[in-house]
Amino acid sequence: MLPQTLSAIPLEELGPWLAMIGFGAYHGINPGMGWLFALSLGLQQNSERALRMALLPIAAGHASSVAIFALLVYAGAHVIPVRPLQILTAALLIAFGIFKLFNYYRHPRWVGMKVSLGDLFGWSFLMATAHGAGLMVAPAMVGMTHGHGGHEMPMQPGMNLFFAVILHTLVMLTVMGLVAWIFYRKFSLAVLRRNWINFDLIWAVALLVVGGIALFIAL
Amino acid sequence: MALWKPDPSFYPSPRMAMQGPPERHAYVVALNVGRNERPDVLNVVDLDPHSPTYSQTVNTLEMPYAGDEFHHFGWNACSSALCPYAPHPHLERRYLIVPGMRSSRIYIIDTKPDPVRPKIVKIIEPEEIFSKTGYSRPHTVHCGPDAIYISALGSGPDGSGPGGIFMLDHFNFNVIGPWELHRGDQSLAYDFWWHLADDIMMTSEWGKPAQFENGLVPEDLLANRYGHRVHFWDLRKRRLAQTLDFGAEHQMVLELRPAHEPNKTYGFVCVVISTADLSASIWTWYKENGSWAAKKTITIPAVPAEEKDLPPALKPFKAIPPLVTDIDLSLDDKFLYVSCWGTGELHQYDVSDPFAPKLAGKVAIGGIVARKGHPKWQGELAGGPQMVELSRDGRRIYFTSSLYSTWDDQFYPDRKLEGWMVKVNAKPAGGIEMDPDFFVHFGETRSHQIRLEGGDASTDTFCYPS
């Protein structure tokens, strides 16, 4: 189903799909989105299985948060013309980016290391939502609800969004799993001390950059 | 200013912290309460053996108000900032949170840009603590992954209500509010710490402010009215989960030292005095079948003494109680240091087996009767080993002399206890000896807790096993 959908897309409409993949990798590599939690649970229980088990609910929580934005985009596309929707999405993204720029260091309050799979789902949903993971990919999703240049409606915008969320999550899960596994098996935790760059700040800047590009395309 | 890399003094695991660079200076709070009208101070002591000012106070920061009574204090942030569920790796270990236990005032002191010249950047006035938390008499400070946690020994300006925990925002130091949602029958408070990986907080019991502010109340002690319990709290639900009662004769349960390794679920806590035989004890708590239990694993007996040598409160007993008032656990969870303030001894126990501690070393200084001096201080010394702090690598132990202003005067009525600080060297396999070259005398200003540059053995919590 997925390959057919992808092959049905004209080359110039691959942009939003590539963006979904790229954001998937980016969200996966961010320690605050899940791999670090999975890693620490694996280390704590001295079990690679615990690490693997943690990744699935984290990915599902992330997917649910992004799916809510996909639904909003889908609903929005039915009531708002394409260009205003693009501008609205970009404006929201920029506004949230400005907010995060001044609060990039804050996270939703969560206390607890002894987490069930349900807790991990909830934690991941909370982190993805509060940091605007779905908002970040919203312009790409808006791009999937209409044809190139906004002239023609594609056959199945709903299907497109559905697969976009799946694709994004699979890439995120793969990258997140790979990073956690490499840390678990190969790296010393000292890497955390020395090379943990300020992802929170980068994230806030990324929101602004994506918002800026989305606005540029819309205008 | 945003940090690009994590603060280099944050360590994922205890073993990595042990490999960190040695501390170059210590922050030592000292009090003038009960001695003169001067305010309490924060001293900076040079710990670098290669420095020309080694073993000297290189700076003294005086507070703007008198009468705070400094006791314990802590950092705004530490290794717990790396914990995975709420990582704040780009916070800085930079600010000292210094509560005035008698005034309920809290000073936020910045140790940058010049760590030797710290400056007060914020003062939280007592009224704000009262109105936003209900609590008073702030005491132990711990840097949590999500906030700064502070224990309080009472509530209300008169301190008559229950003691508990409140939180400060670790970005702007605003008072957030009380921590507990359900406290059960817990009322007395003192120290607290946690097993973060197990979502458990422990709190201990000293007494009500009325039971210590004007001195030890002998009738309350003999009637076993000081605290004798340890509470275990659900960190996620913020509610009391379990209480262990050590028996009413085990009076004053103070310092809690959980194992540093995050996948261990045991720790040590000290009891100051048993009213049955004046002994002091160390208890090991542990998890068993999903609930908590504790065993007395060290008993330190009282030492017989001549009545004439004893302060009035102890004359009837013809003995000196060891009065274990502080303990500290090395970052490898191998050695436990025990301050016997009454007898003037610091004990080192090998606790590799936490249920069978073995005495591995001992040094003596001060003491209610012995008054033993130091190679660099000939003559008598009043006070004894009290607040003990341990370097990250476990090789250097520092301790100070004062317990609490009014109690100092009760146990040393003839000669006003003075402030001093010494250093003890530990051998890797066990055994300790007094460092003959390190002795700091603070004059009549009484020294209390020590915090080491870059963290020590009673500050950081780690979320990743070694």
Offer a few descriptive terms.
heterodimer, A: 219 residues, mainly alpha, 10 helices, B: 466 residues, mainly beta, 4-stranded antiparallel beta sheet, 4 helices
Enumerate how many helices of chain A there are, as a single number. Answer: 10
Structural class of chain A: mainly alpha
Strand content of chain A: under 5%
Mean pLDDT of chain B: 96
Overall 3D shape of chain A: globular
What's the helix and strand layout?
The complex is a heterodimer of chains A (219) and B (466).
Chain A: H1 2-7, H2 14-29, H3 35-44, H4 48-79, H5 82-103, H6 117-130, H7 133-144, H8 157-185, H9 190-195, H10 199-218
Helix pairs in contact in A: 2-7, 2-8, 3-4, 3-8, 4-6, 4-7, 4-8, 5-7, 5-10, 7-10
Chain B: H1 14-18, E1 25-31, E2 39-46, E3 57-66, E4 74-75, E5 95-99, E6 106-110, E7 119-124, H2 126-133, E8 135-143, E9 148-155, E10 164-168, E11 175-178, E12 192-195, E13 200-203, H3 218-222, E14 229-234, E15 239-245, E16 250-258, E17 266-274, E18 280-288, E19 291-300, E20 303-304, E21 319-320, E22 324-329, E23 335-340, E24 345-350, E25 358-364, E26 388-390, E27 396-400, H4 405-411, E28 420-426, E29 432-441, E30 446-452
Antiparallel strand pairs in B: 1-2, 1-30, 2-3, 4-5, 5-6, 6-7, 8-9, 9-10, 10-11, 12-13, 13-14, 14-15, 16-17, 17-18, 18-19, 20-21, 22-23, 23-24, 24-25, 26-27, 27-28, 28-29
